[in-house]
Design brief:
- The structure is a single chain.
- By secondary structure, this protein is α/β, with parallel strands linked by helices.
- It is globular and about 50 Å long.
- The protein has a 7-stranded parallel sheet, with helices on both faces. Strands 6-10 form a two-stranded parallel sheet.
- It has helices spanning 13-22, 44-47, 65-85, 106-119, 136-144, 162-173, 192-202, 216-224, 240-246, and strands at 2-6, 26-30, 53-56, 90-96, 124-130, 149-153, 156-157, 180-185, 190-191, 208-212, 234-235.
- The protein has a single domain (2-246), classed as NAD(P)-binding Rossmann-like Domain (Rossmann fold), CATH 3.40.50.
- Bound molecules: NADP nicotinamide-adenine-dinucleotide phosphate.
- The site of NADP nicotinamide-adenine-dinucleotide phosphate has 25 residues, from strand 4 and helix 5.
């Protein structure tokens, strides 16, 4: 089977690529580094020749609300439209647990729109909502770091290893089309601020992390557990401490 992974060079996407290849399938990576910019049509129809399923693991260049919203809407609509024209049968969209339970957070509103636009087309769509990745703490430090200081939001989270999530996404992509949504989470609730400090130490870096208490309803939702998975979520290991012992010590970059 031929599977396209949009964002196949990213934190989650790289593991979707690995798991799909390991299962014996052919992979086409759709990302700028692989020569396909999904904010335009150029080269997409050719890249999708013979592809049965697309996994969308893209993320915009900035988490700012307006940038994220136009990126996610544009890419989701394009994958549906050009995918259908190219004979693709199904789309698997990677989203985030709890995005519709957190008010006033633009990036999450953009993810809700991405899901809606992706569902609004002829391809069958499976939406996989994941919790924060084990890699998330390092991603936030990299995004917020100024010199040797970074801020990390205080939030309840049950993070999941991107590699384990990648295996779930690869499995879904190779199954018969199904319009569905489900959640994926790791085995334990963790303190993301503590994880940020742990990963910084494990890399031998000296970066001070300040906890960020987001204001208003957004912050309350973060702290009250809006991002925790529902009872029916698929739980996949390893837990953070076991993961860190074997994790790629250069990815994501700090
Ligand atoms: N990080 C988390 O903890 C987390 C948790 C749950 C769900 N998610 C969701 O999972 C998805 C992936 O997140 P991530 O952290 O893996 O993102 P990431 O590491 O930032 O990777 C983003 C990917 O998108 C690609 N991309 C960006 N702009 C593109 C464009 N114009 N055309 C084609 N490809 C483009 C990038 O490749 P190029 O730079 O080569 O273009 C890269 O492969 C996101 O939608 C995010 O909301 C993330």
């Amino acid at each position: 089977m031929r599977i396209a992974v949009a964002g196949g060079t990213g934190t989650a996407g790289r593991y979707v690529v690995g798991a799909t290849k390991a299962a014996g399938h052919e992979v086409v990576v759709l990302s700028r580094a692989a020569g396909v910019d999904l904010t335009g049509d150029d080269g997409l129809e050719e890249a999708l020749a013979g592809v049965e399923a697309i996994v969308d693991a893209t993320s915009p260049p900035s988490t700012r609300a307006s940038t994220a919203q136009s990126f996610f809407e544009d890419v989701a609509a394009r994958l549906q439209r050009v995918g259908h024209r190219s004979g693709v049968q199904r789309l698997v969209v990677l989203s985030i647990v709890g995005i519709d339970r957190v008010p006033g957070f633009g990036y999450y509103a953009a993810k809700v729109r991405q899901e809606a636009v992706a569902r609004d087309g002829p391809l069958s769509v499976t939406t996989v909502r994941a919790t924060q990745f084990h890699e998330f703490a390092a991603q936030v430090v990299a995004q917020t770091r100024k010199g040797s200081f970074a801020v990390v939001p205080v939030m309840r989270s049950q993070p999941v290893a991107a590699r384990a999530l990648g295996e779930v996404l690869a499995d879904v992509a190779t199954r018969p089309p199904q319009d569905a949504m489900f959640e994926v989470a790791g085995p334990r609730e963790e303190d993301i601020v503590a994880l940020a400090r742990t990963v910084i130490r494990s890399r031998g870096r000296r970066i001070m992390v300040s906890p960020l208490h987001l204001p208003g309803a957004t912050g309350r939702a973060f702290r009250d557990g809006a991002l925790l998975p529902d009872a029916g979520a698929r739980i996949v290991g390893p837990a953070y401490s076991d993961w860190l012992a074997t994790a790629d010590s250069a990815w994501p970059p700090l």
